[in-house]
Write a structure and sequence with these properties.
Rossmann fold, alpha/beta, 10-stranded mixed beta sheet, single chain, 2 domains, 301 residues
Length: 301
């Protein structure tokens, strides 16, 4: 196993980067990332940090023996992660590189994201003092990364049954959906599965939906979805698209439909988004509630 320098991030161009901290869920994230790297025929870069988060270790001193233990433990984690990656993608095993960094994991991943194809993290981690809580990593990277971020929630959905399920993408009718649709169609095409495009046009649901103007609003929502899909369906004729238009809250609608999907793809912000550094309410709420893997997509600057 090689331990690569963290001083040359441009060498990670187009790689999928997976963060691992030794927790079960981070290893599940590695397994998902390995399958993803195999589908895209790109490098899988596994990274772990032996740095102590300042918020967790203020005033703490680390001796030479502690540093050596941290390094050996990090190498052990990466060895196990490499084994899991190779097992997860035996037929399409990607090129795997590893890195032990002394930098704090959050700023490291955000820096690396400027060059990577995708970041992959677990939704939560060990909470060990020297690695921080992986949940804070997923929150920070989905808010601030420069590339798409995949968050794995304990079910990597890479088994034979899940692999036949469609990709679910949220469409809100804004430019924010374009990048999410691009990625969702590509994922569906590479995985040889269908795509479910969902547009929820109301901020209320159930009995609260107003009756007045229902037909007009429904027709407008269907037109919005059709317009958003038009160019994508032409570029990906191999992808069967199921269209869903609902008068419902986007979070509730996507969460309900995610039970029938192997992966959910959403934009980083939608109708209520302010800047590229703000995670939208829909994607933020889903981040903490879905069970299947989720990719938050933002356009590169």
């Amino acid at each position: 196993m090689s331990i690569e320098s963290s001083s040359q991030p441009t060498q990670l161009d187009d790689a999928i980067i997976a963060a691992v901290d030794g927790s079960v869920i981070s290893y599940q994230a590695v397994a998902w990332a390995a399958v993803e790297a195999g589908l895209h025929h790109c490098r899988l870069h596994l990274v772990t940090s032996m740095g102590i988060e300042a918020s967790l270790g203020v005033g703490m001193s680390v001796g030479e023996a502690d540093v050596e233990w941290l390094r050996k433990d990090s190498e052990r984690i990466l060895t196990e992660a490499t084994r899991i990656a190779r097992t997860a993608a035996p037929g399409d095993e990607p090129r795997i590189t590893t890195e032990v960094s002394v930098e704090a994991i959050i700023p490291l991943l955000i820096e690396r994201s400027a060059y990577a194809r995708m970041l992959v993290v677990g939704s939560r981690g060990m909470g060990a003092f020297r690695r921080g809580v992986l949940g804070s990593v997923s929150t920070a990277t989905t808010h601030h990364a420069h590339c798409p971020v995949a968050v794995i929630h304990g079910n990597p959905a890479i088994d034979a049954v899940s692999a036949t399920q469609p990709i679910l993408v949220g469409v809100d009718g804004t430019s924010n959906s374009v990048a999410a649709l691009d990625l969702a169609f590509e994922e569906a095409s590479r995985r040889k599965v269908g795509l479910t495009a969902l547009h929820a046009w109301s901020d209320v649901s159930g009995l609260d939906v107003p009756v007045a103007g229902w037909d007009g609003a429904q027709e407008s929502a269907q037109a919005t979805l059709a317009e958003a899909l038009a160019g994508h369906t032409e570029r990906y004729p191999d992808v069967t698209v199921r269209r869903i238009v609902l008068a419902n809250r986007p979070v509730r609608a996507l969460l309900d439909e995610s039970a029938n999907a192997q992966l959910i793809v959403v934009g980083s912000h939608g109708r209520g988004g302010f800047t590229s550094m703000v995670l939208g309410s829909t994607s933020n709420a889903l981040l903490h509630s879905v069970e299947v893997p989720m990719i938050v997509v933002r356009e590169r600057a």
